[in-house]
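Target chain:
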Amino acid sequence: MPLSNQLAVFGHPIAHSKSPRIHQAFGHQLGIDLRYQAIDVVDGNLAAAALRFQQMGGSGANVTLPFKQDAYKLCRSLSANATRTQVVNTLHWRGDHWFGDNTDGPGLVRDISERHRQDLRARRVLILGAGGAVQGILSALLDAGVDTITLANRSPAKADALCDLIGEPARVKSLYWQDLADAGHFDLVLNGTSAGVQGASLSLPFSLLTPRTLAYDLSYGPAATDFLAWAKAGQCWLAVDGLGMLVEQAALAFALWFGQTPDSEAVYQNLRTTP
């Protein structure tokens, strides 16, 4: 196996990750022999873990919570999207340094617009949370033509800082969490909090939803259960988890590493039918 085919995903916790299964399926599909491992960065030191991985022949990696901002600092060169969002979820070793990209936002937009056939243009969007996962999707949503994005986070200062980073005050603004009940309804409600991953529940008003609202959780599986149950109870017409986004961002990362684009739909359907 070529050294360039040694891949990994960094995170903590990471045992639940479907990324190894997804990329092994992509490799099999395209006849590429690869090894993909999940690396739990228990000590929180992504730089040291990435160095060890590269010294063992690793050349590409995905990065998940809570290290996307750390991955940005690790890179000497960056894609335009990573430069703009200042978070990285995809690493590619380029001779003597890590190149960083962020495929989360484009992956989300592909899942919503192509798989679920929803036009994002002129949509009023509410995003819950203001961490690295949310930071990575904002520019792609703006580029897709959404009208406005409202960020609500339990720490208002964090939401305000993210709005300042994006620098489009007419389109991206923050909202105090306690004011959600008076915010009106939205065309798209995205859950980017870590509540589901941590086993916590969200208390959200149904007034955010209409029968035409799309509710989307960036998490998938059990972590998305509580938010999706709320959305369905509120008569939201479509409530989906982030499995499609996971597959689409992975396909974009795979294309960066190997220059070939896999069939993401086949892998997505397989994951849906055999979790």
In short: The first strand starts at residue 6 and ends at 11.
